Amino acid sequence: MSKLGRLLRRLTRLALRPFARRAASQVRDTVDPHELRRENVIAIRPIVRGLCAVVGSYYIIVTISHMFYETGLALPVLTGLSGLTALVCFGLLFFYTRRTESLTRLEITGLCINLLMYSNVVTYQTLHFEPAKLIYFVLLTLVYATSGASLRVVLPSSFLAIVTMYILAHNAGFPVLKQHIWVGIAGIFTAFGMAGIMRATIFRAVHARVVAEQHRREAQVLAHFDALTGLPNRRSFFVELDKAIEDHGKGGSFDLALIDLDGFKPINDIYGHSVGDALLIEVGNRLRACVGKDGTVARLGGDEFALILKGARSDEALRTFGTLVCDALRETYLLGGGVAANISGSVGFVHSDADGMTGSQLLERADYALYYAKQNLRGAPVVFSARHETEMRDFGVVDQTLRSSNLERELYIVYQPQVDLTTQSTVSFEALARWESEKLGTVRPDVFIRAAERSGLISDVTLILLRKSLVAVKTWPQNLRVSFNLSARDLRSSRAIGRICETVKASGIDPARIEFEITETAMLTDFDQAVEALARLKAMGCRIALDDFGSGYSSFSYIHRLPADKIKIDRSFVTQLLKHDSAQKIIKTIIDLCGNLSLDHVIEGVETEAELKRLREVGARYIQGYYFARPMRAEDIAGYLNRENGTATLREAV
């Protein structure tokens, strides 16, 4: 019998191996095996519980029938055993297996029921042996195979039933044994075949459902979370913002912040996207740590992040928190490959205290505060205020007027001379943009230039002003240059630089008479692109000046990488000349630096004789400011030059 058992076990394994291999392969390749096991248990549970109900009900009937048909010792034995079977089945059904997710419980339940059914059949055959009813053992194997929670339940139960049948048949004589040998073999193969097919079908269905659920969760994650940082994405952020606004309508409060990284793009360009991705992940982690449980951190895209902070905070509290965030972002990032990166972040805050304001309106104000921070306080927090509201409203009006105006007619240029103290003569004029709007009247340059930059119209404005400047230059003496300002957007756009180059070539003016001024902030926005743009202008023969040097993030480390010809020293140092000796020392240091690098210098904003005297003492040569002349129209330049020449002639005569 042991050899027959081993043979049947081996055949069973062979029959079920394809199903097992396929299931195992699917588990390894697509889903979490623990989740799949749990779902398999949930799928099998109704079968085992159904077995409890059916067997329990059946043995209630059997118990009643025993009461009518059994006598003597058989009556209490068979009635008690069948009654116990029914009681245990319903106990397992209602208590032990209810909502269970344990495979072990289902296996124990199956073994208990199998053993009780087996005991009922064996006891009946012992008391009333009937060869015809040996077939019940085969029926038991079918029940075991189709209702077993696992093969650990099916195999021992089935083999026990068949072996018992063979033993009883053998005791009844060879003819009975011969009659039941093939019945047992057929039964065992039929049972195992049914078990394999049923279990494989159930497990395939469960596997498909688990995979579908996993894909649904993954799709949900992709729909609501950023794949790189794991933070809520733009879509999820707007959902949270709508909830916060709804809660605000019920008396809640929150603050909104937009964060933009300063200096991220150069790191991404120099070290590659893998390092850039690692940097963004670490930024997300630092923002999470700063916000904690007090709000939501989201990545809106690129290097832009957003925060929704629960509760009400004062302006000072927001600035303190913003400073904490900026300090955290400014700490050195140690990334893969030994890369140590340094960036900063600008933050724009807005309160939710304005009733009836939509999410887009709040975002617009936070974005303006962020824009203000990047333009004026890079790497620092700014809280949106009533003054910003007025400016933004003005910008909105200016933006719409810019789009609908005849800028070719309304824009014009004024020119401020740059004087060489050595020769006491003008060597260049800086072209300064002006706008006399037919609808708004005179609009300040800082207002309409910023509005043009934000709206994307700045490239068109630049070309209009450049053409007007070059027309004026044609009327000047050949020794005079024009200094023209470019915006950060001009430098970032290859198309814009190409149009500027075409305009210079079409003017017929010697490019050496044209000097393009760029600010430090414009350079730092995208340093490599800016250097490339300046190289194209320099290749034509134009001069390059670095404007407002010392007012922001001046760094001697990048000056040598620029094709610069001149540095313009910011007026902020001039205003301190008569108050602090350090300002004079700084100006002298910059002048000496220019001399060592073979660069010209020009000092802006000189207005008094006392300031000019101090600058002469430190070796200043080129000066620009109200002391010599205020900005003038193109038609006034000839008279200015004539007066200057007359003064020079008078000095020579004296």
Question: Can you tell me about this structure?
Answer:
This protein is an alpha/beta fold and 654 residues long. The chain contains 25 helices and 17 strands. The protein has three domains: 2-220, no CATH class; 234-384, 2-Layer Sandwich (Alpha-Beta Plaits); 409-653, TIM Barrel (Alpha-Beta Barrel), CATH 3.20.20. Strands 8, 9, 10, 11, 12, 13, 14, 15, 16 and 17 form a ten-stranded mixed β-sheet that branches. The model is unreliable at 18-29 and 649-654 (pLDDT under 50). Strand 8 and strand 9 form a beta hairpin. Helix 2 runs parallel beside helix 4 (103-127). Helices cover 63% and strands 15% of the residues. The termini are far apart.
Brief digest:
The chain has 654 residues and is an alpha/beta fold. It folds into three domains: 2-220, no CATH class; 234-384, Alpha-Beta Plaits (2-Layer Sandwich); 409-653, Alpha-Beta Barrel (TIM Barrel). The chain contains 25 helices and 17 strands.
Under CATH at level 1, the class of the largest domain stands as Alpha Beta
Uncertain spans: 18-29, 649-654
Overall tally of domains: 3
Number of helices: 25
Round the Cα radius of gyration to an integer and report it: 44 Å
Helix content: 55-70%
Strand tally is 17
Whole-number mean pLDDT: 83
CA-CA gap between termini: 137 Å
The main sheet comes to: 10 strands, mixed
Tell me the quaternary state: single chain
Q: Which overall shape is indicated by the principal axes computed on the Cα atoms?
A: rod-shaped
Structural class: alpha/beta
Report the CATH superfamily of the largest domain.
EAL domain
- CATH architecture annotation of the largest domain: Alpha-Beta Barrel
The portion of residues forming beta strands comes to: 5-15%
InterPro entries: Biofilm_reg_signaling, EAL_dom, EAL_sf, GGDEF_dom, Nucleotide_cyclase, Rev_trsase/Diguanyl_cyclase
Domain GGDEF: 252-386
Domain EAL: 395-645
Protein name: EAL domain-containing protein
